[in-house]
C-alpha cells in the first residue's frame, strides 16, 4: 500500500474513533460505562490484575451498566498516541481497565474490549447547567493536554473566553499547567471529572471536581462555574479554581 494512502487511512481511523475509545486512551472518560459484546448467557470476568493471567475475583452481567472507571493500562495521552508509528500502535498490548459496579460491591480489572460509554441511563441524572459545566471542564483538560501549539492552548488569549469568565480572562496571562495540575510539570493522569456529589449546584454556582495524580501523588482541583451574563446567551464559564493551599483568582 502506498505510504500516502496508508497515512490517509490512519488519519481517517483516528477521526472516526469513538469518544469512548479516546476517553479510555487519554483518561478523560465519561462518568459511567456499560458492558458490551458479551453473550446474554455469559458473564464478563473481573480479574485481580490487568490480564488473563490474574485470578477471577468477580463477574459483571452481560448488560451491566453504571460502571465507574478508575484508569486503564497502558495509559496513553492522545498526543503520545499520535506520535507512535503504525508498527508501534499495532504492537501495543491489549487495554485493561479498573472498574467498579455502581453499588461498589464488585470491582477489578476487565478487558477494555468489553466496555463502552453507558448510553442506557446508568449515569446519574443531572441538571442541564451541571452537565454543561462538567463537559466544559472536561474539554478544558482535553484541549490543554492535546494542544500542539500555543494558539491551540485553551488558556491562550484567543481561546480563554470559551472557558473562563470574560472579566477573568486578562488575569490568565502567565498561567498554564498550574491552574489545572497545581504544577508546571505534569506526569500522571486525570482519574475523575465530575460534579460535587454532595452539592453540584447552589444558587447558580456549579462545582466540578477534578481528581488526578501527578508524580504519584493524588490531588484534586475544584472548579467553580456559573452563567457569565457578560457574554451573549450567558453561557456557563469558570470563575474560580481551587487547589490545595491556594486558589485562582
- CATH topology (level 3) name of the largest domain: Nuclear Transport Factor 2, Chain: A
Mean pLDDT: 82
SS field, number of helical segments: 6
Strand element count: 13
The SSE string, one letter per element, is HHEEEEHHEEEHHEEEEEE
The first-to-last residue Cα distance is: 54 Å
CATH architecture descriptor of the largest domain: Roll
Please state roughly what percent of the residues sit in beta strands, choosing from under 5%, 5-15%, 15-25%, 25-35%, 35-45% or over 45%. Answer: 25-35%
The radius of gyration computed from the alpha-carbon positions, rounded to a whole number of angstroms, is 20 Å
Principal-axis shape equals: globular
Helical proportion, percent range:
10-25%
Give unreliable regions as ranges.
3-22
Supply the number of structural domains. 2
Main sheet properties: 6 strands, antiparallel
CATH class of the largest domain: Alpha Beta
Query: From the helix content, strand content and strand pairing, which structural class follows?
Result: alpha+beta
Structure write-up:
With 249 residues, this protein is of the alpha+beta class. The protein is globular and about 55 Å long. The termini are far apart. Helices cover 22% and strands 30% of the residues. It contains six helices and 13 strands. The chain folds into two domains: 3-117, Roll (SH3 type barrels); 128-248, Nuclear Transport Factor 2, Chain: A. Strands 8, 9, 10, 11, 12 and 13 form a six-stranded antiparallel sheet that branches. It has a three-stranded antiparallel sheet with strand order 4-5-6, with no helix packed on it. It has helices at 3-15, 19-26, 78-83, 86-90, 128-146, 177-181, and strands at 33-35, 43-47, 56-61, 68-73, 96-100, 107-111, 115-117, 188-195, 201-202, 205-214, 217-227, 236-243, 246-248.
Amino acid at each position: 500500500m502506498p505510504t500516502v494512502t496508508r497515512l490517509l487511512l490512519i488519519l481517517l481511523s483516528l477521526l472516526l474513533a469513538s469518544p469512548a475509545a479516546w476517553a479510555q486512551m487519554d483518561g478523560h472518560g465519561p462518568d459511567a460505562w456499560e458492558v458490551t459484546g458479551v453473550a446474554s448467557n455469559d458473564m464478563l470476568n473481573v480479574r485481580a490484575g490487568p490480564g488473563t493471567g490474574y485470578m477471577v475475583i468477580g463477574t459483571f452481567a452481560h448488560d451491566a451498566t453504571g460502571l465507574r472507571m478508575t484508569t486503564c493500562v497502558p495509559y496513553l495521552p492522545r498526543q503520545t498516541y499520535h506520535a507512535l508509528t503504525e508498527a508501534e500502535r499495532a504492537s501495543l498490548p491489549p487495554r485493561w481497565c479498573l472498574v467498579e459496579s455502581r453499588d461498589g460491591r464488585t470491582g477489578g480489572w476487565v478487558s477494555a474490549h468489553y466496555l463502552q460509554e453507558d448510553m442506557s441511563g446508568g449515569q446519574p441524572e443531572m441538571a442541564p447547567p451541571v452537565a454543561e459545566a462538567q463537559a466544559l471542564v472536561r474539554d478544558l483538560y482535553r484541549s490543554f493536554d492535546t494542544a500542539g501549539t500555543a494558539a491551540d492552548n485553551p488558556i491562550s488569549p484567543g481561546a480563554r473566553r470559551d472557558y473562563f469568565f470574560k472579566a477573568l480572562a486578562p488575569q490568565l496571562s502567565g498561567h498554564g499547567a498550574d491552574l489545572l495540575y497545581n504544577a508546571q510539570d505534569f506526569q500522571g493522569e486525570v482519574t475523575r471529572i465530575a460534579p460535587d456529589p454532595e452539592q453540584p449546584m447552589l444558587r447558580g454556582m456549579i462545582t466540578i471536581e477534578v481528581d488526578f495524580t501527578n508524580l504519584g501523588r493524588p490531588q484534586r482541583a475544584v472548579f467553580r462555574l456559573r452563567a457569565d451574563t457578560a457574554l451573549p446567551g450567558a453561557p456557563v464559564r469558570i470563575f474560580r479554581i481551587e487547589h490545595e493551599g491556594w486558589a485562582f483568582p
